[in-house]
Amino acid sequence: MSDLQADFALARAEFVVRVAFEVPAGESVAVLGPNGSGKSTVLGVLAGLAAPDSGQVRLGGRELTGPSTAVPAEHRRVGLMGQDPLLFPHLSALENVAFGPRSQGRTRVAARAAAGEWLDRMGLAGLESRRPAQLSGGQRQRVALARALAAEPDLLLLDEPLGALDAQTVPEIRQVLRTHLRDTGTTSILVTHDVLDAAVLADRVLVLERGRIVDDGPTGTVLTAPRSSFGATLAGLNLVPGTVSASAAEGEPVSIRTGSGLMLAGVAAAGLRAGDHAAAVFRPAAVAVFLDAPGGSPRNHWPATVRSLEPATAAVRLRTTGPADIAVDVTPAAVAELGIGPGAAVFLSIKATEVTIHSR
């Protein structure tokens, strides 16, 4: 595992992309921002496909870009995977994946052996001899991911890797990515427009606007309490981190305990083990607000204080503090009926079926 240090500037026609950030070894960072904000430019500099006007990029102690250094892309030990898998059409799935380790200097036999192992991990055993045209979109994307990881990159760059997939394939590939980023401990940067990708895959989020980092923090913090105009649009989900209380298989009921001691019940998005770091993900509109403690099961009920009220699409967004700081969407009529304002003490409740628990 390698840490990344980047501090560089590159002038574009509209503005200057000027960023400075670090990614600890094994961490996954999502880069979010409007179209044309400079996200792909940042990846291009890291991958060695674009030269900055000034600054430095260091990976695992090696200087890749600097005043007198420009390591070629093929020698950086940086893997790049985009929404187009860009597989070699004349090569089989096995040979496509073997290209990665071959580019790192392994023998043909060793590269093929590694490729076979990675295809098996991706659930593609038996498809080794098929060419890209004989594979489905999801299978091609898995081959591309296997190729990127088989090269054992010190840094993996993911540029909208799920953007070209159909809606039925996206959850499958997102799960593959999550599992392998966790299991391999690969330092990674993910550029995406999908807030769920960030919620499931990233430890941290950077928000980029006109070439500047305007928000940087843990995923849950950035998605629920944004500090920028674009970040505000990301608050479509609540994310509450915690620890899994008891093991559960995909689709089974499961609970997490947060650092404040709150227990949140939900449904496992994938297999979870007791003690795993996880996160509960749910929509602000799924949370109900009461002035008095609701009856019934105490699970997923907790007291909170309204910090602020903000306008939202066809709703009012309440920012609340308590055992979990979350956003809640209610109707203007409900705000008037309940007499809710800043400082109001309320009780929040959400059905377990509305909560998805993801491993982190």
TrEMBL record:
PROSITE patterns: ABC_TRANSPORTER_1, ABC_TRANSPORTER_2, MOP
Residues annotated as domain Mop: 295-359
Keyword Transport: yes
Domain named ABC transporter: residues: 1-235
InterPro entries: AAA+_ATPase, ABC_SmlMolc_Importer, ABC_transporter-like_ATP-bd, ABC_transporter-like_CS, Mo/tungstate-bd_C_term_dom, Mop_domain, P-loop_NTPase, Transp-assoc_OB_typ1
Taxonomic superkingdom: Bacteria
Entry's Gene Ontology BP terms: molybdate ion transport
Entries under Pfam families matching the protein: ABC_tran, TOBE
Keywords: ATP-binding, Molybdenum, Nucleotide-binding, Transport
GO molecular function, one term: ATP binding
Name assigned to this protein: Molybdate transport system ATP-binding protein
Species annotation: Nakamurella panacisegetis
